[in-house]
Design a protein that fits this description.
There is one protein chain. The chain is α+β, with helices and mostly antiparallel strands. The N terminus is likely disordered. It contains 13 helices and 16 strands. Among the domains are: about 180 residues, no CATH class; about 140 residues, no CATH class. The termini are far apart. Strand 4 and strand 5 form a beta hairpin.
Length: about 475
């Protein structure tokens, strides 16, 4: 952070008495920040701006205690130093509030940004996925909505919004207009998360299929029931199973029902454009997290950064408390250029990639280990935290050491179990057989549905001639 300050301020940056400790994307005050890039209007990108979105997030975590403070700091900084990233949606949560900040630059060589931030009502949930989501917003409710002074006028000047249209101003339509491509790519994921949290809403797929006149999905909804930590983990894991867009079904899923699709997303057949579905769980994920910010607990205990690498569907979230001063070594090493069993990232990538050879069967083994580990972490969480709170009363440093040791050992346990899982999968599914017990291999071919698709696609090639007997069976007795 001090290097960045010198770049911003020059040779004599103002002295700061203290910057807050940060673990991943949560700080010691339980402030957590995440993001998704929506891109938006390409002509508004400012390559001369000083601050990328990740600079803003890191500075906010180091300097702010609350989500509201983070919104103010990030937007003040871009006014003074310029915003360098494309359009961005930033989620910000503390122990009391959760906000979504959507921001985009105002063009090359120009400082500032066009932005709006909205507070998510208590008891509601929101989500975003590579597309701006804030539409209309109140202009006179600073407790729940903040915005840049230029957000509407700038859109008018650029021709993104016409007051004469009699339509209310919509941030997302002005700065990230809906297209069939981004609706398919982004809104399908929003729809799936919302429909699973609130099945009673019976949300239509029409909008993410770009049906003309379809209603966009709400920015936030009230779930049918209060979501547990396990529920949120589950919402992160989705390939549209059980819907018309289920990626584990059909010829595109292959013989073993794999939901993975190789890039590029778009392709052509006879000149017509097509696109794969993009699910919430995708193999291109580098890391994901679920954060807990709990005001009824001391900060050192209340803030937990549940961290996982690679695909959300097959990862395992490990608990990292916001007061820790060390990380699991296996989660700090690794290079894209060289495979290493010592790296957690490579262990998870190995298991996930190998499983694609026989996904329908192997994923069951993966999820069993995932469930065992995450289930145990969640089960012992109250006991771990009670011990830490007791230690805080007498020795805060020892409490931090206790939570650090717990977080580090849990991370190393997960890496070790994932390596063992990879070795088990190679042995169990070697050469297309299944060995439930070592040395006891059995055949398990393809599903009937796949056989039918193959036979239909290449009629006659695999069909054997009907058996013919010289004499009818009834005559063979005579």
């Amino acid at each position: 952070m001090h290097v960045l300050e010198r770049q911003i301020k020059g040779t004599n940056p103002p002295t700061r008495a203290h910057t807050y400790a940060v673990v991943g994307l949560i700080n010691e005050h339980q402030l957590a920040i995440s993001e998704t890039t929506y891109g938006g209007r390409e002509e508004l990108y400012n390559p001369d701006g000083m601050l990328h979105y990740w600079n803003l997030m890191q500075l906010a975590l180091q300097r702010c205690k609350t989500a509201r403070e983070a919104v103010k700091l990030m937007t003040d900084l871009v006014e003074e130093y310029g915003y360098r990233s494309p359009g961005e949606s930033i989620s910000i949560a503390d122990t009391n509030e959760a906000w979504i900040l959507e921001i985009i630059g105002v063009g090359p060589g120009k400082k500032g940004a066009a932005w709006v931030a909205m507070r998510i009502p208590d008891g509601f949930i929101s989500c975003h996925a590579n597309k701006a989501r804030i539409s209309t917003f109140p202009l006179d409710d600073p407790d729940n909505c903040l915005y840049s002074k230029n957000v509407i006028q700038f859109a008018i000047e650029k021709g993104y919004y016409k007051p004469s249209s009699s339509q209310p101003f919509s941030y997302c339509e002005a700065y990230c207009p809906a297209t069939p491509t981004n609706q398919r790519y982004a809104d399908t994921r929003v729809w799936s998360m919302l429909r699973r949290a609130a099945p009673s809403m019976n949300l239509s797929p029409d909008y993410h299929r770009a049906v003309e006149g379809a209603t966009p999905y709400p920015l936030w909804i009230k779930p049918d029931q209060k979501l547990s930590l396990e529920d949120v983990f589950a919402l992160m894991r989705d390939h549209y199973e059980g819907t018309d867009f289920d990626m584990t079904k059909g010829i595109d899923a292959g013989p073993y029902g794999s939901p993975l699709r190789s890039r590029p997303m778009g392709w052509k057949v006879d000149g017509a454009d097509h696109a794969w579905e993009r699910p919430i769980s995708t193999q291109q994920t580098g890391f994901s997290f679920v954060s807990q910010s709990r005001g009824h607990l001391p900060n050192a205990v209340g803030g937990v950064y549940w961290y996982g690498v690679d695909d959300t569907y097959t990862t395992c979230y490990i608990p990292l408390y916001c007061c820790i001063d060390a990380l699991p070594p296996s989660f700090t090493i690794g290079s894209l250029d060289k495979f290493s069993w010592d790296s957690a990232w490579w262990n998870f990538n190995f298991v996930a990639n190998f499983a694609n050879l026989r996904y329908r069967d192997m994923v069951k083994d993966i999820l069993a280990v995932q469930k065992d580990l995450e289930g145990n972490f969640i089960a012992v969480q109250p006991t771990i935290e009670k011990t830490a709170i007791d230690l805080l009363q007498t020795d805060p440093a020892l409490a931090a050491r206790f939570l650090t040791d717990y977080s580090v050992t849990r991370g190393e346990l997960v890496t070790r179990r994932w390596r063992e899982l990879g070795e088990t999968l190679i042995r169990k599914y070697n050469d297309g057989y299944i060995q439930d017990k070592p040395g006891d291999a059995r055949e398990k071919g393809y599903e009937d549905e796949w056989h039918r698709m193959v036979a239909k696609n290449r009629p006659g090639q695999f069909k054997l001639p009907e058996k013919k007997n010289d004499k009818p069976e009834s005559k063979l007795v005579d």
